[in-house]
């Protein structure tokens, strides 16, 4: 699963997977999504206002989210401090996946349009909604299947945990990640479809098809439903499956991984405080957008949305538009016959508990072009210069389309060569997929990018419950 250029149509035609009927449904949903997203000046966003004192950009209802400012100091990196805009969304959203058992496990997914999606419609979990949305602040229709998650039948919950989101772009953002087993028949509504877990995993190998919210819930599912360790004939897939096994030998004890991360958190390597958007240094705003003075990092733009497939027929909102495509990668290697991943203690100013465990590499390379070579992210070259035979997963995946505009990352799993040390720098540890999955039973231990790659690894293991 390394073909990042694979298209849905080519995949369905050339290989016959996933199920051709699934692709027909997905393409029909995309064609039926007669939506338009038009960039408009920030000053013309319907329902939004700029605070005359702070300069913060917020919804007139006081709900949804606010674009505010952040002052950051003391992370020990190449830049000792900075200021930036950031999205503040204190309410807790709901990401829920409904599952049922047939010949194998099936998942109820939806083809959901988000204004920031590269291709308009992507595969989303059963429920993907902010609290403002599912309490109908917008005055529109209700959220389908919501009752399965806000009032789950006793014994039906498979996974339920609060998880963080992008700490560079969100201030303390959390979503409730839930997997619930259906009790009784649950019919498909328009834009929804029951698909096998294996088909959903296969979709993880295609560019910009499975959205971020589905990936994070899949990672939480991987924490409770580990892949079979029966031999598949694919040496790397078998290695991945053993990495998820509770009997697999990890180079670090679970308690030692937790102790290392707790010690780093105790040092408080970063201090971030909210400030007014109007006072943020190094950024400028005109009536159209908010931009970095040097043209790096991201912009805040405004969009107007018209659609026939959402709870309301139209709305306006700000979106964060990143510059360039990011690189998100785990370096992997077998140690003692068990797959290990090189995880990094990831320091991001918007995380509630700093740091969280993330991938080996998480960056947008062009943001480092102005810095000396010594300040490039560690192991970035080991990822970007890896020969094709060492790349085990390579796919371009979108981030949250409800808040970010065309935010893409190239996600990779790369087999490490001998130049990558077995004893890594202090901010890194070799951990097994099982250890990451174990941490996902708890909040704020693994970044959203790390969860996406864990879901990708889970899909590589080949066999499902």
Automatic annotation (TrEMBL):
GO MF annotation terms: lyase activity
Organism superkingdom: Bacteria
Pfam families: Hexose_dehydrat
Domain dTDP-4-dehydro-6-deoxy-alpha-D-glucopyranose 2,3-dehydratase, residue spans: 22-221, 256-457
Name of the featured protein: Oxidase EvaA
Species the sequence originates in: Micromonospora chaiyaphumensis
